[in-house]
Amino acid sequence: MADGQKPARSGDGKTRVSWKTIVLAILAVYALVLILLNSKQVKVDFVFFHTRTRVFFLVLLSMALGALIMWLVLRSRRRRTGGDRSAPDSDASATP
Questions:
Q1: What range defines the domain where residue 75 resides?
Q2: Cystine design at 38: which of 16, 29, 33, 55 (Cβ 3.0–4.6 Å)?
C-alpha cells in the first residue's frame, strides 16, 4: 500500500476484505443497475422551457437540488444562531 499500511490478514494467511469495500462495491453495482434501468428519455417541462432527457439525469438533478437546498437551510440556521452548534456555550451563564 502507498502509505505503508499492510492489508489485514486473517489467521490462515488470506487477505480480508473490509466491510467498507463490500458496501462500496454493492453501491457501485446498484448505481450501474439504476443507470441501465432508467435510460428511457422523457420530456421535462421546466417553468420557462422544456427538454428531453434521461430519467437517470432527472434523479441526479433532484438529488443535487435537494442537497443544495439542505446546505442553504443549514447555513442560514448556523448564521442565525450565531455559529457552530457543536461547541458548548460557556458564556451562557455570564450574560446578565
A1: 19-81
A2: 55
